[in-house]
Amino acid sequence: MKLSVLINNFNYGQFLRPCIDSVLSQAYPDVEVIAVDDGSTDDSREIFASYGDRILAVLKENGGQASSFNAGFAAASGDILFLLDADDTFLPGKLARIAEIYDRNEIDWCFDRVTTEKGDQPSAELQVTLFDKRDTLRKGGFPSLPVPTSGLSFRRSLLAQILPMTVAADVVLSDNYIKFAAAYLGRGAIVETPLTFQRIHESNRYTGTSRAKTLRPRIMIATGLELARRYDGLQALGKSLVAGGIAETTSLLKLRSEARNTVTGGPFGDAAATEVALMAARKRLANMLRKGQA
């Protein structure tokens, strides 16, 4: 069974070597490393070149994380595909242990938990939970999938039903879309024992940043609209995500406006523009409902 690891990178040159080395040092006989650079302006491409033919470098113009997923998938040839952010690393033995889980179980995807503690080593025994919430998703339910990009892996046949995905700037449409789609399309497993190190740092685009609170509603709305558009069985979930995102944004606007008014006595200037965006999201959802798409 051949494995492909799809590394997505944008200006994370300072973290690239530990990331790539964590894959190349894995004790698994058949692994390809697809390193996608999304238009970096730092030394990332020079670092890619230094690895020669040990990795396949895909160099593209900046288009956002979703476009990097698409490009990596198009270049990969493995039976099982792993996603890896360029600032994270795989713990020793991860690939062989995940491959064994696929071999032992009839699953289409496998998500492993991450640790944020540098230097953590994998446990000798893994706690694996088989996961099939397809009926829950069809009914609009929200299964818990608290695993970031670097903990995700898929059978090629499943990921081919998800990628290529609609391109979106920044991280607004990315791993949440892929996780919900995978859980809807197939049966999976969650490894409760961390096999991946997620690096938390000041350059994170989402996790652990001050942007997370304001980005979350945008992610919910974009993910809901796209899931409902693409998959007939996810109309209810898509509607719930959009409604939740609108509610969270409205709540944030109210809190920020009240805080600004308390300090300055004047209106919050961005509220009108944000309300226009919310109205557009509501209109798109209403149109989809009328057309029987959501």
TrEMBL record:
Entry-linked SUPFAM superfamilies: Nucleotide-diphospho-sugar transferases
InterPro entries, sorted: Glyco_trans_2-like (IPR001173), Nucleotide-diphossugar_trans (IPR029044)
Keyword tags: Transferase
GO-annotated molecular function: hexosyltransferase activity
A Pfam family hit: Glycos_transf_2
Residue ranges of every copy of the Glycosyltransferase 2-like domain listed in the record: 4-160
Key word Transferase present: yes
Gene3D superfamilies: Spore Coat Polysaccharide Biosynthesis Protein SpsA, Chain A
Name listed for the protein in its UniProt record: Glycosyl transferase family 2
Organism the protein comes from: Rhizobium leguminosarum bv. trifolii (strain WSM2304)
